[in-house]
Amino acid sequence: MVEVDEGVNAxxxxxxxxxxxxxxxxxxxxxxxxxxxELDLVGGVRHPNLPAVCLxxxxxxxxxxxxxxxxxxxxxxxxxxVILIASEIQVPSDLNLPLSTGLIDWITESGVGxxxxxxxxxxxxxxxxxxxxxxxxxxxxxxxxSTDSSHELLKGIGVPLxxxxxxxxxxxxxxxxxxxxxxxxxxxIAESSGEIGQGVIPxxxxxxxxxxxxxxxxxxxxxxxxxxMEEAQRIESQIRxxxxxxxxxxxxxxSANTGMYG
Length: 262
Fold this sequence. Notes:
This protein is an alpha/beta fold. Helix content is 30%, strand content 21%. The chain contains 6 helices and 12 strands. The longest helix has 20 residues, at 225-244.
């Protein structure tokens, strides 16, 4: 299921997981980190029940769920490498548990040091935040940790813990499995109003907030707030363009959503 180049040394690495989220937030974060940390494509996930698609960027095909790796500077203990999992497709619900199990097996077998899951949530029509907010406070950020040490790390970077709630999708399943298996992992989740009606509005500001939270972990991504927003908006536009063309869609997706950000 997980196929990563044999030469990749993930021992002690920081792993960042970015599966589809409200407002394209996790994808903007993933594209940003790949660019700024100069991460290389090193593998992906293959499974017969994944959507029958490939992504195309700069004329090159990419697996829908892919692995990147590199060695930027990292402040976390035992971390001198970064592994990033990126995806622009919604994982079918019946694959969440087996895919999470396969990824976590690879994480433990490869000796990854710590895991961060990037996600976002919609708070509904009564939300006090929107994609047009200028507020840079932490009220719209939430964190979840599988261990006490991950709770302390979240507090150290200023992310408040989610006290009560339900987290679905890959992030929810992976966090539950990490706690069950006593694997050090945390989720950083940004409130986003990027989803409106049947359409999707990418939320570069929420993505920038998450990247800002990671400053203390990855000094290589330190940027002033305004240039950070401009970069997130550029990547937002790039993702829009990449997702706009869907050739030969499966018959059952023509009347429904294409499976991308369902």
